[in-house]
Amino acid sequence: YVRALSGSTNSSCAFHSWKHTAVQSIGVCYGVNGDGLPSASEVVRLYQSNGITGMRIYFPDADALQALSGSNIDLIIDVANEDLASLASDRAAATAWVQTNVQAHQGLNIKYIAAGNEVGDQGGDTGNILPAMQNLDAALSAAGLGGIKVSTSVSQGVTAGYPPSQGTFSAGYMGPIAQYLATTGAPLLANVYPYFSYVDNQAQIDINYALFTSPGTVVQDGANAYQNLFDALVDTFYSALESAGAGSVNVVVSESGWPSAGGTAATTDNAQTYNQNLIKHVGQGTPKRPSAIEAYVFAMFNEDKKGPAEIEKHFGLFNPDKSPAYPISF
């Protein structure tokens, strides 16, 4: 994914007529791999007091789901990777999952269910993703909940190609998933990290390009001009979807962030710059898709049990005591 730095396609002109109908939406990922984190009800209040309109949770945490009831916060719920095998092989298991984690809770705004997070990168069986999605879709439809869209969350490592117009899926399992999403109208959930692209390729990537602070165009790709790496990475996903015959599928950025400590270029200044600029930027979209992007910042809290890399502990916007890790405005 390191080389997936930018892009556009010959067909990009076809998308310039798209209406700007999407609403800017910024969520924050709520992970719980830390000591001393606030209660779920306190966390929901912290989202509300900061004007954060969306949340992603990494498993169907009953405490969080209860606290979210009536909150009007848009929600992504992950199916834990270890649960995909049973959901893939057994439609009754998918029905039970929907009953327990969706139907049993009232007053939720569930937008998406993510059938796994970065399954390929975590050594999981990627063959389980699509059948699990299909069984979850069937269970939701049978329950009259077809408005909840099922997808999977993938890393930028599933794409290859530079500039962005040359983006393709390097992972063979992605083509059928992309084509299935095109039939259901669900988006692809993509974890997009200019930070990791920059750290892995500092000789070729200027940090300003990664931080949204470049003064002008850095990569010209046909008619599309790229001033930041985030747009280039997202448009690489769009080119990959097009090349897979799934150009109608939207990309939702299910994680993006920058660490404030623990590694190369991991400072509070850089983290604040990246995340504040991301929040400001998503309303305008990318060169290939100039309409608002739905994005989720990773993550709400610094989580001291994450690892093994030290930086994994330092992606939070807030400390466990609810104090800001650095000032940020939504």
Word description of this protein:
This protein is an alpha/beta fold. It is built from ten helices and twelve strands. Strand 6 and strand 7 form a beta hairpin. Helix 4 packs across helix 5. Belongs to the glycosyl hydrolase 17 family. It holds the Pfam family Glyco_hydro_17. GO terms for molecular function: glucan endo-1,3-beta-D-glucosidase activity. It comes from Aegilops tauschii subsp. strangulata (Goatgrass).
- The first-level CATH class is given as Alpha Beta
Proportion of beta-strand residues: 15-25%
Major beta sheet summary? 8 strands, parallel, barrel
Low-confidence stretches: 1-23
Radius of gyration: 19 Å
Q: How many distinct beta strands? A: 12
Please count the helical segments: 10
> For the terminal residues, how far apart are their CA atoms?
29 Å
Strand order of the largest sheet: 1-2-3-4-5-8-11-12
Which fold name corresponds to the CATH topology?
TIM Barrel
Structural class: alpha/beta
